[in-house]
Amino acid sequence: MDDAHCVELNKRMTNEDLYLLENVKSHTFICDECGVELIPCSYKKAINLRKPYFKTGKNKEHKPHCFAKAVSKIREQAKKSRITTEEGFPLSYPNCFNLTAAKSVKQSPEVSDEKGTDTSHSRRAAKADLGVRQKNNYVTSSFQTVVDQYFNFPYDRDRKLNFEGITGSEYRDVFQKILNPVGKQKFRFQSKDDENKVFYSTLSWEKPGITENTITVKLSAGWWQEVDGKKQNLRPYYIEIDIASWPQTSINHLVERLKHIQQLVKGTDKKAAIVFVGRQDRETDFYRFTCNEPRLISLKVF
Predict the structure, then answer these.
(1) Which residue of 8, 85, 97, 257 has the fewest CB atoms within a 10 Å radius of its CB?
(2) Cβ atoms of residues 39 and 54 within 8 Å
(3) Please, are residues 147 and 161 in contact by the beta-carbon 8 Å criterion?
(4) Which of 196, 153, 145 is nearest to 172 (CA)?
(5) Within 10 A of 88 (CB to CB), how many other CB atoms are there?
(6) Is the four-CA dihedral 111, 149, 47, 72 of positive or negative sign?
(7) What own/partner pairs with CB < 8 Å and gap ≥ 24 does 174-181 have?
(8) Ramachandran angles phi, psi of 51, nearest 5°
(9) pLDDT digits (tens, 9 = 90+) for 150-185
């Protein structure tokens, strides 16, 4: 499973949240559907090559009414085709993000009954092809959770998303892939206005540049031109991350994660991407993106 409910923190945790959690073994995780205890696995980023996940213990199974296995099948289907139907999206998902959310799971007003009662346990979706129930959407303070939703459901990016500080009402509005200039362009503005967006791009193979106050990460996107019969990125886009006010643990974590994700995809057909909330420099250097919040930077493997 890719997510679980942490009892001590009283919040939903994604698999990659385990990278950020100190002393994972001191926490108890349960299935958000049926309450069966789950074991966190493969969360030591310096050792494990497989991404983190949760599993049931020996001789323990999800309860009969639990839809965890059906949800896993739906997630696999979503990688290849759209799963939203006329009745809506069949799984719960975060439709609102803000860093100060008290809990990662919160009932959305539009899915309550007239008395305000949570009806998630009484609703059943009459979908023979999906076989799972419709669940309530929720508010999250986990950037990684929102990132996972965008990339894990590529054909359902028209779902609602209210992202604090960013214009747009759907996932596809909030996220912006950093695109190469085309034709005779030497640069490209990645958003219509000078504003924050959730930008993303695959990483270059170069190591990040680290100074006392900044970490510079080069991207594979940029001004690609043919030189001596070969395509070369003559002017790569890059992210300048302001770390002046960061705690040292956050700096170390980002540097280690960048190193780890490059090693993870080396020699494979997979790609490593960085996702961040920031903006493009429209005055000094059009190839520069800036960001400064460690909680709004994520790494993803395709």
Answers:
(1) 8
(2) yes
(3) no
(4) 153
(5) 12
(6) positive
(7) 174/198, 175/150, 175/199, 175/200, 175/275, 176/200, 177/201, 178/219, 178/221, 178/237, 178/289, 179/221, 180/221, 180/222, 180/223, 180/224, 181/223
(8) -70, 155
(9) 999 999 999 999 999 999 999 999 999 999 998 888
